[in-house]
Amino acid sequence: MECNIILVTLVTLLVAGYLYVKKKFQYWEARGLPYVKPKFPFGILGGVGSTKHSSEVFTAAYQELKGRGPFGGVFFFTKPVVMPTDLDLLKNIFIKDFQYFYDRGFYVNEKDDPLSGHLFALSGPRWRNLRNKLSPTFTSGKMKMMHNTIVAVAMEFRNYLEPFADKKEVIEIKDIISRYTTDVIGNCSFGIDCNSLKDPDTEFRRIGKRVFEFSSIEFIRIFFMVMFQDLSRLMKMKINKPEVAEFFMRLLKETTEYRERNAIKRNDFLSLLMQIKNTGKLEGDDTDLGKMTFEELAAQTFLFFIAGYETPSSTMTLALYELALHQDIQDRAREEVNGILKKYNGEYTYEACMEMKYLDQIINETLRKHPIVDNLFRVCGQDYQVAGSPHIIERGTIVVIPIYGIHRDPEIYPEPEKFDPDRFGEENIRDRHPFAWIPFGEGPRICIGMRFGVMQTRIGLACLLSKYRIKTCPKTPIPLVIDPTSTVMAPKDGMWLEIEKI
User: Fold this and answer.
1) Please, are residues 344 and 399 in contact by the beta-carbon 8 Å criterion?
2) Alpha-carbon distance 12 to 20, whole Å?
3) 473-489 as b/e: b if 16+ CB within 10 A
């Protein structure tokens, strides 16, 4: 008898759950909007064990929805999500109607996880106040101040590769480049010589890699925190791993205390943030930015690290992959670099690197074909009437912007699989919609460190190309396969290329 009652109860719960999910999946159809048919119970998401990268999933959705209106719908589990397919709507979301879409919807728990309170994740007045404080630290003058530090690390990087080039060896370039970006960001963010090029097992490098390692269970935890934020904060859930948070908080506390005690000043981000923390101002500028807490300083420095470590590393890796496949483009880039260096007596000055326009086109085309962040997210803060449409995006609705899909759209970029830096010549840029290329986002929430990331990528590529030729080898992944477990666009099983001295 008891078994029958239990069985009936379980069946009732299962049927009720199924009907609930089925009703939720009728959200877009009931509003007369095009949508991607969801898969029970994950919606558009592949779930645990999926072999598809998110870029592939969302691009397929973008292609299915495009041309059927300014936006369509998808589902994250049972949650309805807007996917814009019209670039004018995208412009409104990013800029014209930004006040509706200022929030990214990321999980923040500053009380239990101080490092989560960084600029990328914060929303509303907290985000705007912090953005105003940090913007002066990313001016061209501040970038120029750090240029020589990056060049010094890049020369170490180039010298490290020389023995491999002498023997025309095949190397796994992704790992070596990530050690270069680790040393750059360690110097420019923390003022610390990480030496990861010489010793890949340093604690800084080990912890840096740990930031980007996620198991299936950790992905589920993060998704839970994003979907159920109030409950997650009540449960004191943390988005950062304990060993990562402990390392960075300890490192920053020791470093800031040592500098303050010994009146040490350096040309790095930490020095700039310490000025804001202690005085509310930057030296040589009377603008009152407002002081920072130590926890705010720590969170922003942590953000500089994770952004400056992975994004330039993957961009450089994928640029070298494309240059290895297209030797004519590589030769043209090398000719430009060496011609400009000759003009500047062989010195990688700030002015010399800024003149490398074709190298910038290569970086831009790499980020077009392989945008490191393949999708961006916004949350609608209040009911939003879509221009030229009878439809409303309801308050609290997530908006997913399919960067990868837009960048691979053949109507915007003919032959999208072709690697062609000339797409970013001045005339071609002028003829394209301004929101057809958005690897860093756009509008008030555009990536604040964009110029710094491009600068270290440009310097690293210039130093390599001036002295070495990069070629494919039997282990080079052709075609490229993206790691489905990676949060960014990273090649599966690394990137193997041959390097030889010019």
Assistant:
1) no
2) 12
3) eeebeeebebebebbbb
| 79-84 β-sheet, strand order | 71-76, 79-84, 398-401, 376-379
Q: Which residues of 88-105 are buried (b: 16+ CB within 10 A; e: fewer)?
A: ebbbbbbbebbebbbbbb
Establish how many alpha carbons lie within 13 A of residue 141's alpha carbon, considering only the half-sphere containing its beta carbon: 8
Rounded Cα distance, 99 and 53, in Å:
31
Instruction: Quote the CA–CA distance of 427 and 436 in Å, as a whole number.
Output: 15
Closest CA to 81 of 20, 27, 40: 27
Specify which residues 171 forms β-bridges with: 497
In tens digits, the chain (502 residues) has pLDDT values of 566 677 666 776 666 666 667 777 888 989 999 999 988 777 887 655 567 888 889 999 999 999 999 999 999 888 899 999 999 999 999 999 999 999 998 899 999 999 999 999 998 888 998 898 888 888 888 889 899 999 999 999 999 999 999 999 999 999 999 999 999 988 888 888 888 888 888 888 888 778 777 776 777 788 788 878 888 999 999 989 999 999 999 989 999 998 989 888 888 888 888 899 888 888 878 888 888 899 999 999 998 888 877 889 999 999 999 999 999 999 999 999 999 999 999 999 999 999 999 999 999 999 999 999 999 999 999 999 999 889 999 999 999 999 999 999 999 999 999 999 999 999 999 999 999 999 999 999 999 989 999 999 999 999 999 999 999 999 999 999 888 877 788 888 889 999 999 8
Is the preceding omega at residue 371 within 30 degrees of 0, hence cis?
no
What whole-number distance in Å separates Cα of residue 29 and Cα of residue 143?
Answer: 50
3-state secondary structure of 490: coil
Residue 178 phi/psi, 5-degree rounding, is -65, -25
Angle made by CA atoms 159, 160, 163, in degrees to the nearest 5:
90
**Nearest CA to 124 among 156, 161, 99?**
99
DSSP 125: H
What CA–CA distances, in Å, run from 55 to 153, 408, 420, 477, 486? Answer: 32, 11, 21, 18, 11
- The number of C-alpha atoms within 13 Å of 176 and in the hemisphere containing its C-beta is 21
Name the region of 208 (left: φ>0; alpha: ψ -120 to 50; beta: rest). Answer: alpha
Please state, in angstroms and rounded to a whole number, the distance separating the CA atoms of residues 343 and 357. Answer: 15
CB 367, CB 439: distance < 8 Å: yes
pTM, to two decimals: 0.92
